[in-house]
């Protein structure tokens, strides 16, 4: 898991922003496309390319600013929600900082769609004992469930199950395989 | 050491082989036997000669009784057997045993015997001699159906083991374990029961979903285990002779880690129906459960101590998983292990002397044991990703699962770690061994 989680999220937001920008105005792609923490790349005036949040300098299009904003946010949320697997350190059930925005997006979606059901599957890597890992997988799934509830989802929308170390995402005993196996998967139904 | 000079008759009971798995089964492939491989012997092994038995009448094809006995004794790690080709004579009666010859070969004990076919039964008459004392220490007969010569052979091995060591042998006991093969949709979990040498394996349950934690009832007639066949873990009790299964625990959350009480009337188990993994005791007749632990931490992997005195379990209440002991159900648990940050899945022996468990040392997971009187801990395995220790019912051997070249195999070691043999599955992984009780 050396390709960091935040890099992936960022890449997705980036591409989603690109799509939203195209569909709304068909121009100002640069403004839309770059996240705020991206530095300018050799613009002829040497200026910083700003993030797309404020809509500064956008020419008028079919959609109003508010609509564009909403569409973009929706696309961003959608992009965040493309991520449905959350990883953990060995023998912990602590949700990683970089997973929080994604989980908030899932929680909002669940709150907005009360009929949507989701199954939370908790897993552990192969180290340690099977029964302890079964309990650890459950604790991870419960941690995600609590986070989603705190952020607006309701308990009735979720069921949790732990597979412990029984269903690895990746076979093998390398550090990278193990990191990918210590996880909770959200399965929307 | 017992000394017997009279022949007494012993009947070997036929094992019930009727079974019916509740799930789909491929009967044709029902005997996926494990291959035995002896990896090292103990230096202290006692030299024993098993002389090939004389035969009168037609014997069933397959392994000879005396070679099965020889394999059993070698497998125990406590004996070193002499190859028949190195023997100076091949007696089958006590009157033909010349102690001087066997002493010259450095042998401590000699087993001789003969097999007689009568109808559909095979009778064995066998005698064990102590070479130093020039004395017969065992003389017996035993019989079994022609289809059960392995049962007969394991019985003889048990008698010899007991005559020499004073402890009951475990060669007639059974192993339960889970094999896993295939990938994706073809993945199959199979709960199997075999002899302790891996032979006569029979599939008892086959599923596309995980099966784990098989546990033998004290009478050896039932297995409790966890199966995910409904998509979530539930505990089943499975009667081996009939194949009848009862789903005994299917609460919301975890239903796992079943462990029998000595009287076979109740199961310890881990449930998380109140939101957190706790240990419960279920009375099997009434299905009434009693909660034994109450802590925000994970409490799991319970096991009754020797003579049903107290319960060992894993808890991470101190931060990481450690072994705890609860003197009586509900009493304040006492921590047993301190030597490393990860100690889990306790399995006490049958004498109240040791508790065995999975122990992390640096990056490796070994099986370790703690002496319950002194508190001293020792690591007894040299392999590095070890799981699921199960102690033989005489306390002399330990079976566990270990990773080897990317797959999982079963390994048996003497309880002090001296000798070892492994039982790799012919295909795929084999894991979760549970050593059955002595049932005579």
From TrEMBL, chain A:
<feature type="domain" description="OmpA-like">
    <location>
        <begin position="75"/>
        <end position="189"/>
    </location>
</feature>
<feature type="signal peptide">
    <location>
        <begin position="1"/>
        <end position="20"/>
    </location>
</feature>
<comment type="similarity">
    <text>Belongs to the Pal lipoprotein family.</text>
</comment>
<dbReference type="InterPro" id="IPR014169">
    <property type="entry name" value="Pal_lipo_C"/>
</dbReference>
<dbReference type="InterPro" id="IPR006664">
    <property type="entry name" value="OMP_bac"/>
</dbReference>
<keyword id="KW-0564">Palmitate</keyword>
<dbReference type="InterPro" id="IPR050330">
    <property type="entry name" value="Bact_OuterMem_StrucFunc"/>
</dbReference>
<protein>
    <recommendedName>
        <fullName>Peptidoglycan-associated lipoprotein</fullName>
    </recommendedName>
</protein>
<dbReference type="InterPro" id="IPR036737">
    <property type="entry name" value="OmpA-like_sf"/>
</dbReference>
<dbReference type="GO" id="GO:0009279">
    <property type="term" value="C:cell outer membrane"/>
</dbReference>
<dbReference type="InterPro" id="IPR006665">
    <property type="entry name" value="OmpA-like"/>
</dbReference>
<dbReference type="GO" id="GO:0051301">
    <property type="term" value="P:cell division"/>
</dbReference>
<keyword id="KW-0132">Cell division</keyword>
<keyword id="KW-0472">Membrane</keyword>
<keyword id="KW-0131">Cell cycle</keyword>
<keyword id="KW-0449">Lipoprotein</keyword>
<dbReference type="InterPro" id="IPR039001">
    <property type="entry name" value="Pal"/>
</dbReference>
<comment type="function">
    <text>Part of the Tol-Pal system, which plays a role in outer membrane invagination during cell division and is important for maintaining outer membrane integrity.</text>
</comment>
<dbReference type="Pfam" id="PF00691">
    <property type="entry name" value="OmpA"/>
</dbReference>
<keyword id="KW-0998">Cell outer membrane</keyword>
<keyword id="KW-0732">Signal</keyword>
<comment type="subunit">
    <text>The Tol-Pal system is composed of five core proteins: the inner membrane proteins TolA, TolQ and TolR, the periplasmic protein TolB and the outer membrane protein Pal. They form a network linking the inner and outer membranes and the peptidoglycan layer.</text>
</comment>
